[in-house]
Write a structure and sequence with these properties.
The complex is a heterodimer of chains A (293) and B (524). Chain A is mainly alpha-helical and 293 residues long. Chain A is built from 14 helices and no strands. The longest helix of chain A is centred in the N-terminal third of the chain and has 34 residues. About 2% of the residues of chain A have low confidence. By secondary structure, chain B is of the alpha/beta class. In chain B, 43% of the residues lie in helices and 13% in strands. Chain B contains 21 helices and 18 strands. Chain B starts with a helix and ends with a helix. About 6% of the residues of chain B have low confidence. Classes of the chains: A mainly alpha (293), B alpha/beta (524). Chains A and B meet through helix 1, helix 2, helix 6 and helix 13 of A and helix 1, strand 2, helix 3, helix 12 and helix 13 of B. Chain B: This is ABC transporter substrate-binding protein.
């Protein structure tokens, strides 16, 4: 009897444990490879413990760290500035959409929702941004396009809808202006929602390489993710098309195995640190859209 | 009852978890397929009309212009800006232009150029070829300017330096759209082996050089057998995708797509290379060698491709692949981590793909096409300027030693793009230590003595059979590793042929034949 009760639980736990392991192993092996010796890796393959422990790969990447530091600072600037502005805008529009007494609520909702389904397409977007707005090779091109993401607006709106309307009303009776209500009542109340959406936005900015691939040609504006993406993409391209390429390409120049992994650690590192700080809001925030009240 | 629902619920949970888990594992597999089909927008009518004006001007009275130049490579290099500004000093002085360098990394170049061309954004020069920023397709879209007049007027020296049949190979409907970066165009794979091994077992690689084909692979067998006996960990290495130039037929869209024409076939009949006796024979030799244990196929089959890392780890007997060129043993030695010897596999052939592999095009949107052409002429005639771009700043990124060879400078790591054929004629490059002094003369000779393909000047437009090409190439991907490792049995090979046909091989062959016939008719 007890076995029968425990068996399903055991099964689920087993699956979850496997799942957790599957998440952790790649990370561990990346760390271990980045700390291993290149030739040993080539001979023995990857392993979970560093072989011939050394920091050579990090030394290689940090040989001329200006590029990397620059990319890191671009990424940080874009992520932080982008997240702050984006949160303000997202919160603003979500709040308006959550107010029942807003006249154009449905039209505005449709406008937001519509962009979730349809967009301008790659080439028109590119033409608009580079030929008309002249945003190419500026820091703003990395920030502006993600300022208002429909999905995040919808999440936050749902969260804000749960804040009772009577709070707003009582504020009004006390003579608070709309801005005061928004900044001093709604935003503090919506903190869990803001934290969740903020984390998503932060991740979106931090992980993005697409915008920089399209619009950034100046080395000084290349963010970290794009730098990493470019490196890995190069390696992939070179191995794939060696037969087509003119002779004389030396594949040995691309950063080797260990250096790539070290690069990955450096790119993912900051987010691993940030995540736990958000976590207490995160669990709460995730359920916000689930229950409608 | 309740227990039952709980059981069901548990079951569902487990299933979902298993699904997630398997998705997770599946994600470790291939990552390749997603990228295709993005951005296929048509190009807007670009209205810039370009009138070549002001002929015969020289440096002084030219107005100051900026030329935008897109090119791929191992970018970024740490000190590229320093080198580029040095280059601009020279260019400014000589043709009063400033180059706006747009170095794009290899992986991004295709995507980037597609968007730029489709959006009609102005630029002047771009690298184009058959393997990146596709030449034929771009010409068909009308992205490039015809260069015939510009060449005659602004680049007479470099135009004359390249053989006429090379220029003919770039012609589309009778017009030249690509400026050739002259380099080795005669193609045959390279056969290479470790020098120490060859000496130990008394193998003279030049004795087989140029003689290998599907029929004569057995020339290699005594050597392989001897090495294998003492070094069971070593294997014979080759890759189908790298030896397409070894056969006596020219593949039209790469070895992985059905469609080839025999070099000696005047009627230019397109055949399916996988159904030729020659290819079947090659597959049979590999099968035989695998049976004899030369391939270490069990160990290698898990990888899609052999790479030099294994060579460095001492797992190779010999390798057939890459492209033979004089001085190539220097490269092989650096890749393999020990001295290598090399030889051409078979007789070299001159094909369209070998020639159009490295070119520059002037954009339809360019405002200064004549100045762009002058820049190309300058890059292809000014040895110092070219080498500045190619190797960086003298006595910093590279040095010339007492014997006149190029050697690495103290700061080479900061600028070493390693793409000489990308900037201009490869033959202007300083000769690297270890290469023979006559390497460029040898290469030119190889180019001239190579047997020109009868299809020279024809390039296949894959657009009409894109779907079939995708399907057949997927079939190839499924079977090629087995074929090159010799683990594919005869039945399995026939199954491969059947699948190829089911994937639309015939349709591709017909389309190729149609295009070749039209091209042939236009030649006369």
């Amino acid at each position: 009897m007890t076995l029968r009760k425990k068996l399903p639980k055991l099964l689920i736990h087993l699956m979850l444990i496997l799942f957790a392991i599957a998440c952790i192993i790649p990370l561990l092996s990346i760390i271990s490879v980045s700390l291993s010796d290149e030739t040993t890796i080539l001979k023995n393959g990857y392993s979970l413990l560093p072989q011939d422990f050394n920091f050579r790969a990090y030394a290689y990447i940090l040989y001329k760290p200006i590029q990397l530091l620059n990319a890191l600072s671009v990424s940080l600037l874009v992520s932080i500035l982008g997240t702050l502005i984006s949160l303000l805008i997202t919160a603003g529009i979500s709040y308006v959409l959550s107010r029942e007494d807003y006249k154009y609520k449905n039209k505005l909702s449709f406008y937001v929702f519509f962009t979730m389904m349809f967009n301008g397409g790659l080439v028109p977007t590119y033409m608009l941004i580079s030929n008309y707005l002249h945003l190419k090779n500026t820091i703003w091109v990395l920030i502006l396009p993600y300022l208002a993401t429909p999905w995040f607006i919808l999440i936050l709106r749902t969260f804000m809808q749960k804040i009772p309307h009577s709070i707003i009303e009582s504020c009004m009776i006390d003579g608070a202006s709309e801005f005061r209500i928004f900044f001093q009542m709604i935003l503090p109340l919506a903190k869990p929602g803001l934290a969740t959406v903020g984390l998503f936005t932060l991740l979106q900015y931090w992980n993005d390489w697409w915008l920089s691939l399209l619009y950034i040609e100046k080395e000084s504006l290349v963010p970290l993710q794009y730098m990493l993406y470019r490196m890995i993409n190069n390696i992939e391209f070179l191995t794939r098309s060696t037969n087509m390429m003119p002779p004389g390409m030396n594949n040995a120049v691309v950063p080797a195995e260990t250096a790539r992994m070290a690069m990955a650690i450096l790119a993912a590192g900051p987010m691993l640190v940030v995540f736990p700080f958000f976590q207490k809001y995160f669990v709460k925030g995730l359920t916000v859209g689930a229950v409608k009240g | 009852m309740q227990r039952r629902t709980r059981l069901i619920r548990t079951g569902i949970m487990t299933t979902i978890l298993i699904l997630i888990f398997s998705l997770l594992l599946g994600a470790c597999g291939d990552t390749d397929k997603e990228k295709a089909g993005s951005s296929n927008a048509s190009q807007p009518a670009s209205t810039s009309n370009t009138s070549p004006s002001g002929n015969g001007n020289t440096a002084g009275d030219l107005p100051d212009v900026t030329l935008t130049w897109y090119f791929p490579g191992n970018w970024p290099q740490a000190e590229q800006d320093k080198v580029f500004s040095e280059v601009n000093k020279v260019v400014k002085q000589k043709i009063n232009a400033t180059i706006d360098f747009k170095p794009i990394s290899f992986g991004d170049y295709d995507q980037k150029m597609k968007v730029i061309i489709a959006s009609g954004e102005p630029y002047d020069l771009a690298f184009t070829s058959n393997w990146i920023n596709n030449y034929t397709q771009n010409v068909a879209k009308g992205a490039f300017l015809p260069l015939d007049d510009l060449l005659a007027q602004y680049a007479p020296k470099s135009y004359a330096a390249i053989p006429k049949n090379f220029w003919d190979a770039t012609r589309v409907n009778g017009k030249i759209y690509g400026y050739i970066n002259y380099q080795i165009s005669a193609r045959t794979p390279e056969v290479s082996t470790s020098k120490a091994l060859a000496e130990k077992y008394g193998f003279d690689i030049s004795s087989v050089g140029g003689k290998l084909s599907a029929d004569t692979m057995n020339l290699l067998e005594p050597y392989i057998q001897a090495v294998k006996k003492d070094h069971p960990e070593k294997a014979f290495i080759t890759a189908l995708t790298q030896i397409q130039d070894m056969f006596t037929f020219e593949t039209i869209s790469g070895i992985n797509i059905p469609g080839a024409v025999f070099y000696n076939d005047d009627s230019l009949k397109v055949v399916n290379q996988f159904e030729t006796d020659e290819f079947k024979k090659f597959a049979a030799v590999m099968r035989d060698w695998n049976a004899k244990g030369y391939m270490n196929s069990k160990e290698r089959i898990s990888k899609k491709q052999d790479d030099w890392a294994d060579g460095k780890a001492g797992k190779w007997i010999m390798d057939i692949g890459g492209a033979y060129k004089p001085g190539g043993d220097v490269l092989a030695s650096s890749l393999g981590g020990e001295p290598y010897v090399n030889a051409p596999t078979s007789k070299a052939h001159l094909t369209t793909n070998g020639i159009i592999a490295t070119m520059h095009a002037i954009s339809r949107t360019s405002k200064n096409p004549e100045r762009a052409m002058m820049l190309l002429e300058l890059l292809n005639t000014d040895v110092e300027l070219f080498n500045l771009l190619n190797f960086g700043i003298k006595d910093d990124h590279f040095k010339i030693n007492n014997d006149g060879y190029m050697v690495a400078g103290s700061n080479q790591q900061a600028y070493n793009p390693q793409v000489p054929w990308m900037f201009a004629s490869n033959f202007l490059a300083y000769i690297q230590e270890g290469m023979p002094k006559t390497v460029w003369e040898d290469t030119k000779k190889l180019n001239e003595t190579a047997e020109p393909s009868k299809l020279l000047g024809f390039s296949f437009d894959a657009e009409p059979v894109k779907a079939e090409i995708g399907k057949t190439s997927a079939v190839f991907d499924e079977y090629y590793r087995g074929i090159e490792l010799g683990v594919t049995s005869e039945e399995k090979y026939n199954e491969f042929l059947k699948k190829m046909n089911a994937a639309g091989a015939d349709k591709i062959l017909t389309e190729m034949q149609k295009q070749i016939d039209t091209w042939k008719a236009a030649q006369k």
